[in-house]
Amino acid sequence: MADIIWGRHTANLGPEAVLFLIGMRVNRLFAIGKWLPVANSMGRMLAEVGRDSNSGFLGARTWWSGRNILVQQYWRSTDDLIAYAHDSTRQHRPAWTAFFKMVGTGEGAAVGIWHETIRLAPGSVETIYGNMPHLGLGQAVGLVPATGNRESAAKRLAPENGSD
Fold first, then answer.
1. Domain that holds residue 40
2. Is residue 22 domain-shared with residue 53, that is, in the same domain?
3. Residue 86 carries which DSSP code?
4. What's the pTM?
């Protein structure tokens, strides 16, 4: 069982963080030779950035539901995320190119992919964790007690209270 952090806490968001949601959907279940390489490449990318403390990658969690796989990632900044995505010496760029060569974009593609990038800034994010193990943004950037100027959602959403 994960260690529970007792009491009320909130994420210790600095000047910026990025929530990057990336996923895939298996469109043709029996075309495993098309969608399994896509799933495997995500694992390789996460391992790569996880080993590189200078990448700006803060952490990830994978969720699976039916034909859909979602990877919830946190990054230090949009610059770090974009630098990784465009670096031809890293796993992402070759995987991106291989995906479109192998799967294509036409009707009947065996697998689909998607992503959403959300910049998180003080005053635009509100979090609360009550008697929870590390999870989500709080796990990525650390936790602080939800007291004083972080005691209520309204106070946590005030831009001047979002970071120390």
1. 17-119
2. yes
3. H
4. 0.88
